[in-house]
Write a structure and sequence with these properties.
three-stranded antiparallel β-sheet; elongated; 18 strands; binds zinc ion; alpha+beta; Creatine Amidinohydrolase
Length: 368
């Protein structure tokens, strides 16, 4: 099975008509990859109803022929800029209202493009391709399932070999190596490995704390597949004697996560699912210790549309894949976040990740 780039572009042409543009310049890297399969950078895609042209430079000629053999390619030489090449392509393609991705274009780039393009009006668009990417096709789901499997097998290695003198950084490298050994091309993002107070920082980097310093160890990690798809999971391991507070915090987070997952189905608003988890954490008295959104879409990038947070009015649709990751962070003490990957199905949802998540199962013996 392989992805149908053509079908994706046909869908995008429909979205372009709705956005009142008859051409679109796609400069977001992941968007270019999504629409063509090209994995390099510094390359833009121009699309209208009659043309689909990748604008690139000489470094990528061979790779383009290999990855997108059926695509028209315009290669600029070292004496010209991508803006000049773009202007040439746009003029030849005869589009009059050319959308550009405002969220992937700097003000300087826009200014320079505007000077070069005289045959068409530039129109700011936002999130046209990202919206398509919210709903995953069958092939993408296969990739995501593989990314989850690599991540889950990888953490198994870590879980069964925790030592008291192991540092956060050592665990991170072990985890990355383990995921690669199971087939991942690398981590989906820099893994967060935090012991005790470090775990209380939602986006901490792995540092020098040892496992033995505190009973709570938080790991937020994922794998990446060769096709570029990612997974995103978080588990907390209790490596020492748990306190009553740890147990309460852990069980509150888990209850919030499970209640939120239960509510996910097509037609339900993201904000309402966020509210279920947040309300539960607030009622337990930890409201001010849960400062981030409940979850996010992911795929070719680790954070993608859709956002599951207190302001997102988007409704879930069949085929969306999101994380559900409530957390409670007690500054200076410890933090607990539990994160799973959830596919929205026509009649509800399927939790794609299946690692143990009960409190008793989080208590992990350490070797020496
Ligand atoms: Zn995560
Ligand atoms: Zn996440």
């Amino acid at each position: 099975m392989s992805p149908s780039y053509q079908a994706r572009r046909t869908k995008l042409l429909r979205e372009m008509r709705k956005a009142n543009v008859d051409g679109l310049l796609i400069s977001g890297l992941a968007n270019v990859r999504y629409l063509t399969g090209f994995t390099g950078d510094s390359s833009w895609l121009f699309l209208n109803s009659a043309n689909c042209i990748l604008l690139s430079d000489t470094r990528y000629e061979t790779q383009l022929a290999d990855e997108c053999p059926n695509l028209d390619v315009e290669i600029r030489d070292s004496g010209s800029t991508i803006n000049e090449l773009t202007a040439k392509v746009v003029a030849k393609a005869k589009s009059k209202r050319v959308g550009f991705e405002a969220h992937h274009t700097t003000v300087a780039q826009h200014g320079s493009l505007g000077e070069k393009i005289t045959a068409a009006v530039l129109v700011a668009t936002s999130g046209l391709v990202e919206r398509l990417r919210e709903v995953k096709d069958k092939w993408e789901l296969e990739q995501i399932r593989a990314a989850i499997e690599y991540a889950q097998r990888g953490i198994g290695v870590v879980r069964s070999s925790l030592r008291s003198d192991q540092t956060e950084t050592e665990i991170r490298y072990l985890l990355e190596a383990a995921m690669r050994s199971f087939g991942a091309t690398g981590p989906g993002f820099e893994p967060i490995v935090g012991v005790g107070p470090t775990a209380a920082l939602p986006h901490a980097h792995a540092g020098t704390r040892c496992v033995a310093e505190h009973a709570v160890l938080l790991v937020d990690w994922g794998a990446s597949t060769e096709s570029g798809y990612r997974s995103d999971l978080t588990r907390v391991f209790i490596t020492g004697k748990p306190t009553k507070q740890m147990e309460l915090v852990y069980k509150t987070v888990l209850a919030a996560q499970q209640a939120a997952i239960k509510a996910i189905r097509p037609g339900v608003k993201c904000v309402d699912v966020d509210r279920i988890a947040r309300g539960l954490i607030e009622r337990a008295g930890f409201g001010k210790y849960f400062g981030h959104g409940l979850g996010h879409g992911f795929g070719l990038e680790i954070h993608e549309a859709v956002r599951v947070n207190p302001i997102s009015e988007r409704e879930f649709e069949t085929g969306m894949v999101v994380t559900v990751e409530p957390g409670i962070y007690l500054p200076g003490k410890f933090g607990v976040r539990i994160e799973d990957d959830v596919l929205v199905t026509s009649d509800g949802n399927e939790v794609l990740s299946n690692l143990e998540r009960e409190f008793d199962q989080a208590i992990v013996p350490i070797l020496a």
